[in-house]
Fold this sequence. Notes:
The protein has 7 helices and 11 strands. By secondary structure, it is of the alpha/beta class.
Amino acid sequence: MREHSLSAPDGVLVEGGATVGVLVLAGSSGRVEVDRCRLLAGEGMTAASLRYFGAPGVPEQLDRVPLETFEDVLAMLHERCDRLAVVGSSKGAEAALLLAAAYPEIDAVVGLAPTDVVWAALSTERPQRSSWTRAGEPLPFVPYDDDWEPVTDPPRFVEGYRRSLETYADRVPAARIAVERIGGDVVLAAGGDDAVWPSVEFAHRIEQRRAAAGLATAVVTAEEAGHHLLLPGEVPPPPRPDLARGGTPVADAGLGRSLWPILLDALRGDSP
């Protein structure tokens, strides 16, 4: 296993084999997923992760991030490996599904705590803007309902997302991620106690829309798990005072264990 730093934007490449190349994307933390890359490299894959906002050469906030930001690292992985995949968590899952719908060379996508629509940028600036762009144009998005306020500390935003979908129901159809265009394997995992957004509901909407198009989707859920599942060997992240994730370390790890063999099969192309 060999590990290299990436620059512009910051990132890491961990080489564990030439069969599968995986782009690993974090969510709103913006971190480089070094440990998750090492975990996948230990399974014989080559994995890369990059900081797609909050670093030199990329937007300062998760605000109008170009999908083209990921093209160079995807091309690098594709040159080195026979099979190409993306694994993303939360906002990273949003990006992963958008990428898989836009780039047919992606053979598999895994969305952890996914969403089926594009959301507004994570920014306090108004008017609201899209989280993502492609070819210089912002993707259609669902805005946040600014009249909704959390009542817990740390805040649970899940009801705010449900409220925003109701308030801006007219924006939802255009903001739906084109999951019917994803020709490769799709695996989704979500916790029923997700305190950030209703990821189980989102995962099943993706599953239903793909089923209507004759496409299969693997969905793994656990009622007591939260927003941040733990793959085997991963440790719980530190608490965030600005964000309740829900779940428990035991439940989050249990969901990760259930997902793990399905995730590996999809990345390797061994799904039934």
